[in-house]
Predict the 3D structure of the following.
Amino acid sequence: MELYQSFRSYLKEYINLESFIHLLVWDQSTGMPTANADYRGEQLGFISRLTHEKLVDPKMGEMLDQLIPWATTLPADSLESRLISEVAKEYEKARKIPPAFMEKFFGHTARVYQTWVKARKQNNFTLVSPLLRETLEYSKEYASYFPGYHHIADPLIDRSDEGMYVSILQPLFQDLRKKLVPMIEQIRQSEPVDRKCLLQHYPKQKQLQFIEVVLDHIGVDRSRTIQDFSPHPFMIRLAGDDVRFTTRIKEWEVTDGLFSSMHESGHALYELGISPELFGTPLMKGISSGLHESQSRLWENLVGKSREFWEYFYPKLQSVFPTQLGAVPMETFYRAMHHVSPSEIRTEADEITYNLHVIIRFDLELELLTGKLDVTDLPEAWRQRYKEDLGVDITEVKDGVLQDVHWFTDFIGGQFQGYSIGNILSCQLFDAAQQIHPSIKEEMTHGQFDTLHSWLKTNIYQHGKKFSTTEMIQRATGQALSIDPYIKYLTEKYQTIYPTLHISEE
Amino acid sequence: MELYQSFRSYLKEYINLESFIHLLVWDQSTGMPTANADYRGEQLGFISRLTHEKLVDPKMGEMLDQLIPWATTLPADSLESRLISEVAKEYEKARKIPPAFMEKFFGHTARVYQTWVKARKQNNFTLVSPLLRETLEYSKEYASYFPGYHHIADPLIDRSDEGMYVSILQPLFQDLRKKLVPMIEQIRQSEPVDRKCLLQHYPKQKQLQFIEVVLDHIGVDRSRTIQDFSPHPFMIRLAGDDVRFTTRIKEWEVTDGLFSSMHESGHALYELGISPELFGTPLMKGISSGLHESQSRLWENLVGKSREFWEYFYPKLQSVFPTQLGAVPMETFYRAMHHVSPSEIRTEADEITYNLHVIIRFDLELELLTGKLDVTDLPEAWRQRYKEDLGVDITEVKDGVLQDVHWFTDFIGGQFQGYSIGNILSCQLFDAAQQIHPSIKEEMTHGQFDTLHSWLKTNIYQHGKKFSTTEMIQRATGQALSIDPYIKYLTEKYQTIYPTLHISEE
């Protein structure tokens, strides 16, 4: 169909514009001179506007008017049909939001961000709370452009985790919380794990040298990626063959840099695995924040923190750091990296406590949006939940409600659920892969990850955004989202570290 | 005037688009994954088209129709008047060239470049000569869109050195050649200079550490610049407060990296000195390739290779490299860096022979464009001129006509003159600054460059592209372009290295 070809050409230009946004963001975080910060904001605003205009252009509407009926005559899973419906969805969504609203909101977030930086430094919530209250109003207004939602947070969650309604997530997260809180209590009463061996001097260049070996083994294609540095590591796709990520290296801890690189590599492997037939279309991306996080967590935790992985890599790490690790048995090293300790900071949390940080934020977002909680009372609500769930005393607001940037650069609502969906899903998907290929763990002990990588590529990566999160979970695992494999994984693994650990059956 | 405000807003968007081109180019040369090369070409083509469309948009024509008469009522040197006439000129120029022509030519150059890479590797000119012949036809066609020129090369030179007609440059370059050829002959008969002290092992990190000290002294604003690495160093402006350049470091030669950094810093200082009132307009750039090169050469040669500079910095360099230079007297080091030796390669040429490389290329461009020389005979003509002017035997075409990328990525014509205009001008401008501030050289011996830098900023940098090259030379020096200061500089300086050197009076 000729029109379909014009549609693809049009989308290519749309994706070109979007690629400039990604390049500007990448550059801003890795290379840009500091004095250019304000102008970079302008550049981003300008190109975002052009991109938005390209999407909601009447020409797009005319094409869709003809293409949508045609798509119904095609197989439901065909690329053409999926692409047309995805674009139609994005088009409709973009048209529902007044451009003036988004522009005003961008201006607002720039102010909030700057104030947050100050407030955090000064450990002073009231400095930013009036602006945060405005953010809450913006967030509600955003939701109001999508009437008919079941929960006011749904349209906000939909921005990054489409189809993951509050009605699905809330019970799931409550279940998870009920399992995790007692686990933490039990661990707290066990003998603490000794982390000393990790906390020696590990020169940066040598760490990087080891990390490169690991990335090569897990299949990160160097001709299509680059790795750079930034204080908050991230991954970004600039084009089908241009996927970038950053890491950070601590000179006095040996696993943080590696796991941060493996985490971002997981995101990168997802994007690198997308089929070239989706390049230049809005399907050239991972499905959702939850599915993306499932891949970063899978490679970081299920691979990178597994005994099998270290059976192969620990001798290699020892030979890179003979003075630091030559006399440290693998078991000591392995236990050290599984040290569990409830703390204030989400990004430094271990596997067990991490999800509680997320669930607290998710619950507070819902309470704020539904009016059950006032912005003024947020620090106190935060403090209470940390005490209750993690047994942690929050004494400084900078380590409390001001710790994460999310609410201060974007809407309130939909900011955190992806992290926990990702953790839960990572186990479901890893289990599914192992059921088909029981050799995966054995292969890992030989430094081989091809079978796992291929399964993920075939079943998930190659499809880009062709399917929804729900469809994808069903296709890849034959089941719906479930916390059972995740709880099983945590329990079995951490029982080898903390022998008194058990699941509390209700 | 309200329309003028709309005009400025429109230009801001035009400059935004142009800034994306520069970011794409920068990224391509410093960070991009190799596999993205083809798509980057597409991205550049796409954004170049948008930028061109923005310039020749009927809306621009309508604005100019009203603004041009208004501009005539304003002082001739006012920003408003200069900006309107610059934009009008760019608009007219852009409208004269059919977009289809430029698009075809971009496609052509992509092919030529790839073939040139192969031809150079295989040392085989005939592989690329048919494509080069096409390039010559494209170059003539380009000129034909500007009927009324005096010399067919003029419209091509105009692209980077506006107003520098063949009628001005040819006699100037002939004069220069007549002075330089005998100088080289005299140096050839002198005792050669010993370069051994430069050619030791100088670790990269230590070289960089020294370079940073130098850049800080000459006034490169770190908050508005970054330095990266690339095999062919270059400078590029991404925005008013975002100026970037690269360098390369040779571990077995200590001056190449420094002088490459000072050269690119000279370009950067020019761009960094542009007045913020020109930001977001097409006047936010250096005037011409010749004026830009005058600044890179001034900082590289007149500052960086001066005795005064090293009086301050040599002890510092010695303390960075005590084992390599601790026992080397400054005079030995200074003489070593002024080693003159005719060779095949332009980019490695010394101060004396450099311009002959340029003049040979300039003359050959004219002969090709006027039909006096056929593309087939180019290698032989090249060989003859190198023998005649430099006494150098070109045996390999890869070190001859295939050495520079210019003709293989762009038009033939207008590619090289800027380098020699720059050399000539650097001395005129340095002399002019010294006449007003006789203390400049003395200050340099104390590592102080502020007086020089301020004079250049006030007289040249701040004005961006507000004036033409000819106007600027006149304003800053009170004279027209002249080779006399340059010849005087070379003779006086190199007489201290090669005592038999003298100017041959005709």
About this structure: The CA atoms of residues 169 and 417 of chain B lie 8 Å apart.
